[in-house]
Amino acid sequence: MTLTLGIDVGTYASKGVIADAQGQVLAEAQTPHDMIVPQPGWAEHRPEEDWWGEVTRLSQTLLAKSGIDPRDIVGVAISAIGPCMLPVDAGNRPLMNGVLYGVDTRASAEVAELTLSIGADRILSHCGNALTSQSVGPKILWLKQQRPELWAQTARIHTSTSFIVERLTGQAVIDHYTAASFSPLYDIDRQDWTSDLADILPLSMLPRLMWSTDIAGQITPEAAAATGLATGTPVTCGTIDAAAEAVSVGVSSPGDLMMMYGSTIFVIGLTDHRIADARLWYAPWLFPGQHTTMAGLATSGTLTHWFRDAFARDLPPDQAFAMLTAEAEASPPGARGLLCLPHFSGERTPLHDPRAKGAFFGLDLTHTRGDLFRALLEGIAGATARITETYAECGAAPRRVLAVGGGTKNPVWLQATSDLTGLPQILPEQTIGAAYGDAFLAATAIGTAQRGDIPRWNPPARTITPRDHAAYRRQYPLFRRLYDQTRDIAHEL
Known about the structure:
The chain is α+β, with helices and mostly antiparallel strands. The chain contains 16 helices and 24 strands. A five-stranded mixed β-sheet has the order 3-2-1-5-15. A five-stranded mixed β-sheet has the order 18-19-17-16-22, with helices on both faces.
């Protein structure tokens, strides 16, 4: 048998699959974990337990459930949340919790400091991105300035994927797509690390650059003992979870755009040239010669979890989301005049405002919980529409939208997103997500699949068609004005 294994570590859960050369899933498993919020604006994971620990458990579970001989697995690929910042010592032992991607805004002062000292135009020209909470460089500077005792012990800076891959293979590597988020330390023209803009750390402390489907190394005897995989099994360089998710649904050509409904909304759009706009993020794609422009909200699925925990304690935990969705379906589009700003952890693209605040506006004594939940989902959809409008303004309007992620199971959220963006959304047959994309990337790396094979692995299943609602035509402009007119109040709070 010729099988590949893919494992993805997400914000709230990790998933794994074993697939054959035709894309048939022979085994899948998942395990939950929490996002740690030690204080407002911070977001962390435990690298030993949530990253490495779950990779080992999922690998063992998949092998046990399937009865597959580990020697039949000819390739492994890992993806994980990112970009993250994790300092490790010379033995690849974590020195603190992993600092998560743009939802962690602890380095806002360092973002401002670096932007002022380097210059916003110079950063955008060299890095393709403005410095924001998504950038890893300011978080490394935060570590250096705010935690000098840990900095003195730091031998290397990892992201989540590179940490796991080093545990599997002994090789410290990172893909170009992830590295582009290490601004101002990655030069997009040279596609290499740089200290030209800021002397934050010796570049030898960063992992070696590779492309996502390059083979990083082989499973070491120590990793084999921990995972159950066979010693010597090839492991790819890996990538960020959203990129693997985009691969899983068929994003492959310029004009394709992935809409990922997860803990956050994350958007990846392929282009035939580099887009330079400070409101969005840029990176080389997973393969040489391709470009991608990205965007993401700060809270989406995370916000639905907050709502459930705060306002639906009376509902059975295993049925709460289904029951809340039914209540939202009973509320008409527009939630009877109710608006929600979904900026509960600040906001990422295109606002880049870590001090933005969430709000429900327009409440009266007739509103129900269902109205509130619908307004929340419509607020996320409205923020998503603001992203797709930004793409259009940059000359990168999507030609094909492919939707994926746990949030696609919520019909209110899914339909509201098409209605407010005006874009049809294609849903694939397989909805496993990034782990399935990882299995495909592993197959591509070892030559059992070609890059154009994903439509055969995961064909389209259905399309969500936009609907026209008078309530949305009236309320969406008000939604946009609500942020603009309350921004100063939010910042003072």
